[in-house]
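User: Hey, my collaborator sent me this sequence without any context and asked if I could get a structure. I don't really work with proteins. Can you help?
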Amino acid sequence: MKTLTLTQNKNRFFQGLDFLSYGLEIFAFIGAELILVYGIEFNLYGYDTVKSYTTLQNIIHWFIICAVWIFGIWYVVREAAKKSDVDLYKNFKENSLVKGAKEMSVVQWGLLITGTVLCLISTWIDWNGSKFLAELKRKGFLLPIQYLYYFVEVAMVLLIIVFGQYAFEKWFKNDKIPYGGILVALTWGLGHWMTKGSLGVGIYTAIGGFVFGGAYLLTNRNIKLSYLFLCIMFIL
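Assistant: No problem. I've predicted the 3D structure and written it out in structure-token form, which is a compact way to encode the shape of the chain:
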């Protein structure tokens, strides 16, 4: 019995490592944007800031990085489905928004909506008004293309949450803590700290990532519903 228990624990440990690696792979694909910007575009265009990009250069950047990220989503989710019993494609098809909404309790809805409103308020304060209107004024007809970028980025963040949650639940057998949000807080927050050069921005992003992880649990791990609310919290 001791040998069997040890083997089971070892299997669970390495299963958790596998899921953690999937989440980190997604984060690595997000980081590919740094290679594109600092390693290629700045040298090619002769700029030292993305704010100097022309309209065409912005469009090219968004399409290239979205293609890289979509490939990353396909590759990692496919890898996870092949090597584990977690098939997120199947999960996405089978779980509808309506079904997910019906399964949630009043308390869950209350917490989810409260978290969403707080995120929108913080965004309003950070942007001194509506983020959407500010970006519409600045980007104009480019806004739909930039929002395509946002939609794919949110999908990447959600996958880090999902795989992080699977990993830590394998290790600690506790499904009440938003481990995925903690992983996003550490990775995404650290990434923003390094790229923006501001600890405050990193902390702000980390808090947002933690809230996103909580939203995933509140929707009972419904990927479609989680994605919808993450888009609202992140984009608007």
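In plain terms: Residues 2-45 form the longest helix (44 residues). You can pass these tokens on to your collaborator as they are.
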